[in-house]
Amino acid sequence: MSDIWNRRTEIDRARNKKMKELMEEYDKTVYYPAKNALIAECAKIGHRGGKYHDNGFGWSWFYCSGCGGRYDITGPNGEKKDE
Domain span at residue 24? Predict the structure, then answer.
């Protein structure tokens, strides 16, 4: 890799680190609570069919096409998990 690639990578990493630091408090106090409340509300009325996902370690689930939350989570031994 060239020197330019390494410098660009370092600049991008520094920016990502700073953005994460700046957004951390907002994410904890506003974003994640609002997102979780939305997903819980959608679960009560019933998630809408969405994309199937298999993580390759035996777990599979569907993503709701409305709220983006996971549902119908199945573990490696067939156990079901509520999200």
Answer: 3-81
Question: Of how many residues is the chain composed?
Answer: 83
Segments in 27-73 forming alpha helices (H): 32-45
> Tokens 């506003």 correspond to what residue?
30
Cβ contact 57:76 at 8 Å: yes
Closest CA to 66 of 54, 79, 45: 45
Distances (CA, A) of 63 to 13, 18, 34, 46, 51: 30, 30, 18, 12, 5
For residue 83, pLDDT over 70 is answered with no
Domain count, the chain: 1
pLDDT in the model for residue 68: 93
> Per the structure block, which two tokens stand in for 8?
């660009």
Query: Is the dihedral angle over the CA atoms 27, 28, 30, 31 positive or is it negative?
Result: positive
